[in-house]
Amino acid sequence: MKRRLKNPATGDPLSLRLRPPAGQPFSLPLSELAKAVPFAEYTGAGGRCNLAAGCAPPRLTCAYGMSRTETAGTFALHCQPADLAVLLAHVAAPEDALEQQKAAAFAALERASVDPGVLRSIAVDSRLPGALWHVFRPADAAKLRRFLAAGAENGGGNPLAEQTGTYVGPAELDRLRLKCGLRPAVIVQFQGDTVFVPAGAPYQVRNLHSGISLSVDFVSQESCRQCLATGREMRQHNRLPLRRLLYRAVRDAVSVLESTV
């Protein structure tokens, strides 16, 4: 912990995230690690139920823990026009501040009102929580956009598409619940866990301890309509050529049908 870069204004350790730019993955052999992501028929590069098979390489993210802050996250609240699977491959806490970091993470989870069974598991089994997720339903996106735009200095654009850095803390989550009736699913991710996020579902992530995760974009048949709708809203932020993928899927299906006749 003492070797981490410090915020010159507060003296607190900086929370950093290392991730390659879109379309430029790390030059690491991720194919073997990607095999650990469940439901390969959907998430795999050659999955039969993945309409984006071979078009979206896996992405590796390395991030420091942020258990001591509630107003910033590893990933700000946003949504994407594809289904997402995120495998947390490794979690670690700094040896020179292990107990303090674990205590801060536990306190953060208590304030986040996570399931009591999860808290008991952490306390009794000494499990190390990796990340705290808030995942909304795709149907909540419109209300969330209005909520974020109302509180932004510049109300233009789509705050969920632009990833403007808005992390919704506990106070804002309470306002969302009371004012808009929106309540996200609260997920605690441990090492080895995979979190699935459907296309168009707004979500945010805060690493409680430092970790390495693998993200895989895929397009399931069930989410195809939602992918297209969210892609239209996001426009330039869309990484996947969804219409081209849909055309290719229909073409392949017709080819299979013709070969069986």
From TrEMBL:
GO annotation (BP), single: regulation of transcription by RNA polymerase II
InterPro entries: JmjC_dom (IPR003347), LSDs-like (IPR045109)
Pfam families: JmjC
Subcellular location(s) per record: Nucleus
Keyword Coiled coil attributed: no
Domain of life: Eukaryota
One MF annotation (Gene Ontology) recorded for this entry: transcription coregulator activity
Keywords attached to this entry: Metal-binding, Nucleus
GO cellular component terms, semicolon-separated: chromatin; histone deacetylase complex
Residue ranges annotated for the JmjC domain, each copy included: 8-235
Predominant location category: nucleus
PANTHER family associated with the record: JMJC DOMAIN-CONTAINING HISTONE DEMETHYLASE 2, ISOFORM A, JMJC DOMAIN-CONTAINING HISTONE DEMETHYLATION PROTEIN
Protein name: JmjC domain-containing protein
Native organism: Macrostomum lignano
